[in-house]
Amino acid sequence: MNSLTAAQRTGMLEDIEHIRAVGHCSAMSTPGVVAVSAPVFDEYGMCATVAVVGTDNTLSQADDAGELLLVVDTARQLTKEMGGRYLPDQDMP
To answer: Which of 13, 35, 81, 83 has its CA 20 to 30 A from that of 4?
Structure first.
């Protein structure tokens, strides 16, 4: 992070906080290639990630995209099997 400007660092930290809050990430770092992912937790914390990678014309980055919802649901199920808590859900009733 030392090579980033103050504005870039601030932006990155804001992105990380948003990802932690919503429990998933969608990104396109290479033109035309999209990745959606969600963390898996065990009793100690984050232990894995579930991700799908595809082209931008076949995989949406929208928060309500079917592929993303499946990735998040899979991460939740794996978290339960691993004895963890899906952290984005911890504030839900």
So the answer is: 35
Sequential pLDDT tens for the chain (93 residues):
678 899 999 998 898 888 878 888 988 888 899 999 999 989 998 899 999 999 999 998 888 899 999 999 999 999 999 999 887 676 544
Q: Which residues pair with 36 in a beta bridge?
A: 26, 52
CA 13 – CA 21 distance, rounded (Å): 12
User: Are 65 and 72 contacting, i.e. CB atoms less than 8 angstroms apart?
Assistant: no
Rounded distance between C-alpha atoms, residue 85 and residue 44, angstroms: 10
